[in-house]
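Please, structure for the following, as tokens.
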Amino acid sequence: MSTLPTPEDLLAGICETRLVAIVRGTDGGAAAKAALAAMEEGFRYVEIALTTPDALAAIRTVRAAAPAGCFVGAGTVLTAADVADVADAGGQFTVTPALASSIEESARLGIPVLAGALTPSEAYEAMNRGATAVKLFPASIGGPGYLKALRDPFPGIPFIAVGGVGLEEAPAYWDAGAIAVGLGGPLFGDAGSGGDLAPMRARARAFVDTAAGYGRRSPAEPAR
């Protein structure tokens, strides 16, 4: 069972893998199984959204059974009370959809936090509040071009593109400077609600292979 990573270690690991998985469903038990399946296929960072019924129990289950080197966090973390609940459940990082009080509370407790932001002002404010990285959400509104424009004045902010990012879109976000992409529906489908895990596992392998192949590219080689 992996321990709580430091913000620096979490950031380095996400930069290396280029992937974060996002489970959101209608069944906490199914969400836990889906999260563990993603880890078994090569994902090291998986968040379970608190909007999923029994999400905290699912986080406990995944934390206890996660393969070595894998980490489970909580998504849709909005309040200081949410942070306390996640920490008690063994969550190893938090994720927000917006600028919420959970950012400061996570940072205060030393829990890495991926803070949701869309505009330049929000991205800047998220980092000022102690975010480990900025979750650009929803990324599909502006696409890779918008991300590149954001990075021009903020080259030091680590951005994770989330929302409407699938297998075909991921390389363009990496090219635009995203350290990683966050994958929900395009990865899990209905697995978090009890759907078949087999096609989800196949999609997970495809994402992992694509990220690994991107990492092996020479700097001058275009994404395919």
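The first strand starts at residue 19 and ends at 23. Residues 44 and 147 are 24 Å apart (CA to CA).
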